[in-house]
## 1
Amino acid sequence: MANEKKNIKENKPKFNPYWIYGIALAIFIGFQIFNSSGYEDGGITNPTEFFKFVENGDVDKVEIVNQRIAKVYLTKEAEAQEIHKKSKPNTLLPTATRLPNYKFEFGELEIFQNKLNKVIEDSNLNLEPVYITEENHLTDFLLGLLPFILLIGVWIFIMRRMSGGAGGGAGGQIFNIGKSKAKLFDQNTEVKTTFKDVAGLEGAKEEVQEIVDFLKFPEKYTTLGGKIPKGALLVGPPGTGKTLLARAVAGEAKVPFFSLSGSDFVEMFVGVGASRVRDLFKQAKEKSPSIIFIDEIDAIGRARGKNAMSGSNDERENTLNQLLTEMDGFGTNTNVIVIAATNRADILDKALMRAGRFDRQIFVDLPDIRERKEIFEVHLRPLKKEKDLDLDFLSRQTPGFSGADIANVCNEAALIAARNGKKFVDKQDFLDAVDRIIGGLEKKNKIITPSEKRAVAYHEAGHATVSWMLEHAAPLVKVTIVPRGRSLGAAWYLPEERLIVHPEQMLDEMCAALGGRAAEKVMFDKISTGALSDLEKVTKQARAMVTIYGLSDKVGNLTYYDSSGQNEYGFTKPYSEKTAELIDKEISDIIENQYRRAIKLLEDNKDKLTELAEVLLVKEVIFKDNLEKIFGSRPFVVEDREGPAK
Ligand code: ADP
């Protein structure tokens, strides 16, 4: 890593703002030395001693300088005394240039004066303090200068901070604010990631492999008249391995690789982003063939002109415009390829995606069951695990997990095994890790009253019972009433990985989700706040059915979804008030129908529900087998999906 820094920053001017601090310090020290030049000084004393001298009649004259310092001149006789040995003798000098024998600061003038007067009176002396003002022009001048020096120091400090060059110690970043902040990986900095470390993602890997090929053997493609693409956009949910893929490209291509994040362009000064883009491309061209990788490009690539009102996105637009210009500007022979990653392709500006810029879009999706197995294989390599660990089982248990989640499961499992003092990581550790990642930490000592526990048990048993009865509801894996994270209990399913979903499937799932609240109603004739997350899920799903997927008869085959993301409906809805009412009615009807259906199902199977809940109360965790024992094999009560009449 040290090398990257060196590569980018080696030409910076040798300017060190610390000299300002140095000068200030030197002036200050010099001033101190000058001011306290030994010759002028008297010996040091303090007020108590001084008053004693006055009482003894040793003092010839007292000067009060600048209302702060007393200078004491002794009489000739006193000076000869042993007690005044430490004073500076002065009687040898001519009277005019006489220097004080003692000097001290007395603090509050008035108190000192009063005390002195009292001593003089008491001792009946003839001593009158002389008041003088001494001016020190140099001090005044320097004190006047100090604020400016401080101000300049603070300014330089802030500039250094803003140019992001806090690290490294050397100054000069004040001139670097418009320079690109990309990290450079090249021959000197080894990137160890290769395509072997990227599991699954066959399609995406093939595409990026081709990019590596373009850079290594451009002639192969250009001899036939083809043009080498300028950019590729990796699109996909977070944690699916986009960054990993880009890093693997760097590792494989062995060409200079500039890596930065979209937000690195953004700074509080206008014009800095654009200037950084220019600088980045300049550097990349100098080192071509090379790759520029921009992570989270949505930070700058968001569609322009959406918030025309706020006017605050000018700077981002300028940055984006500069990026577009640069991508247009370099010819196909410059051999610089830009790879960008985002998980929000829908909000990107259309201009970014037109041919000639990011002409390739590579989708990096959540892994399917086979890919999950491969990812497990990659991340299990460094672990000490039990011999016949069933990878198929693990990948079946982790639907919807991204590569990053799986990496996390493996790590978490190893930690759990270590905590339990095991020599190998076994299947149970993995299952615990999955539970922990989905549900959060187990909270065994959370205080729950027996009646709350009962309610939770019936709620979860309700989910389990309803989903057991419905054909399309996801099969249940386990039900638990051990509190975890923020939830008091959970029923876990193994959803089928479907690409298209039919309305019946959605309705069955909603019915199962409402099973918890329905069970509370059926058993206790009371409902509770415990169903919040179920209701949220169901409401979202019903709204999507009506307004996005066009699955409602009454609203019809239309959608209010806008994939371009160019229109964000703020206060204006794309439908009339009347339609809005219809939509609300439809959503509410769908949910109510499913709720009634769940209630009916549970009423019909009340005995089984009770049995299950009681088992759950004892065991706290039950699995599919327990359900089979109670219910027999899944009966599939395919009811009228519209639900029973009101
Ligand atoms: P993204 O950039 O898509 O948000 P990352 O590339 O940063 O995700 O992935 C985070 C981590 O997840 C990686 O460092 C890696 O450990 C793991 N990971 C993700 N996808 C895969 C994969 N296909 N194969 C192996 N590991 C993966």
## 2
Amino acid sequence: MSILVCGGAGYIGSHTCYGLIEQGEDVVIVDNLMTGHRGAINPAAKFYEGDIRDAQILDKIFSENKIDAVIHFAANSLVGESVEKPLKYFNNNVYGMQILLESMVGNNVNKIVFSSTAATYGEPEKIPIEENDKTFPTNPYGESKLIMERMMKWVSRANGINFVSLRYFNAAGAIESGEIGEDHSPETHLIPLILQVPLGKRDHITIFGEDYPTPDGTCLRDYIHVIDLADAHILALKYLREGGESNIFNLGNGKGFSVKEMIAAAEKVTGQKIKTEIGTRRAGDPAQLVASSEKACKILGWTPRFDNVEKIIETAWTWHKNHPDGYSDKK
Ligand code: UFG
């Protein structure tokens, strides 16, 4: 049996495909390459270039391959963009999920592992965040992912599909070989932006606010390595194959690092001084986002391997140093 990975050419999707293939799984990828990269596709996977909103291509994939489960990453994921263009997010993310679920039901595929986000919680009520905490997204991106989770919940009851939703905190790092990594356009994420300074691609990093109620005044985030996220998807798949019921899990290291701490760690890793400027707060940024991942550890048997931010940054550095222009050299 094969696994269909929707969005397998994206950042977390491609790392998960590498992990699945390493475990001997047959992987089929569908990706429209809107934000994914051809160069991120594992050569051992079977690739369909197409959009999950296209029912015909999904039905074709399900009929041409024996698929027992879907891992779904195909979505837009930029918080700021989602505020500017909410309908893009409801179309690609929510409507995309509807077509995917319809095709799964029609083709008798009853397992799905879903890429969700800490953005479903919005401003946290307490730290660390647990899965049963209030979900009140503060942007359309988080809202779209929460709606997608709820769609799976109702479809699971009506049509017997079992799902695992994985709510990631701050995905970071790259495969240790440096073969694939993070490449967003535009780049908005902290670690790649910090590393652009020692790469000579930007003069400084702007710290978005130092007046937060945190020890050094900058925001705290829970950085989790992309390989640990990939492992969690593989464990979630195993859980569903063994008959596990539909469930939601947080994925993080359980420790918050400030923006200033991340810059200091990057200076250590790169051996270079990184120039900073203090800017204003970015709209919608909560002061702290830290996960409790106890549930994933207990039920899925997940243990993050990269619990050290310097190690996480080191893997990102290996990727960015060797691919300063991302995948553009591979396309
Ligand atoms: N930051 C800066 N300067 C920059 C970029 C980021 O100071 O140039 C700060 C941000 O203000 C934030 C931290 O660095 O405090 C991390 O920012 P990222 O953009 O890397 O990540 P976010 O925490 O904003 O976003 C992550 C995921 C989203 C998810 C969100 C949940 O990338 O997909 O967590 O709120 F929705």
